[in-house]
């Protein structure tokens, strides 16, 4: 949920002079899209993750974590996880919304199919509890 004009509190997470937190953008992609009966080509599935990632970065472009993440393009970290189906993806989106975790649920048009969730960049420890049951996308 994006609130226009809302102030975003920035917590000091590190001691003065210490390294800033490592920021990660998590993507959660539906595994079943690449399997029958969908059988989407790999490029189409990858495109869903790209759409979701771009949208999440754009929606949360004014957040300090997003700005910091984009300052050093060569150091961007993304983790792509998989869920078995659309139901699991939508359940995760609901959980993230309830916990006020900034994310984008990408809906492929015109079919309106939920395909991928992208979180804005976060310190890993702030969001890993909601994602630890999902494995890396293969």
Automatic annotation (TrEMBL):
Catalytic activity as recorded in UniProt: an N-acyl-L-alpha-aminoacyl-tRNA + H2O = an N-acyl-L-amino acid + a tRNA + H(+)
Assigned keywords, A-Z: Hydrolase
Top-rank EC class of the record's enzyme: hydrolase
Highest taxon listed in the record's lineage: Eukaryota
Matches recorded under InterPro entries: Pep_tRNA_hydro_II_dom_sf, PTH2, PTRHD1
Gene3D superfamilies from the UniProt entry: Bit1
Gene Ontology molecular functions: peptidyl-tRNA hydrolase activity
Family annotation (Pfam families): PTH2
EC number: 3.1.1.29
Keyword Glycoprotein: no
Protein name, as recorded: peptidyl-tRNA hydrolase
Provenance organism: Jaculus jaculus
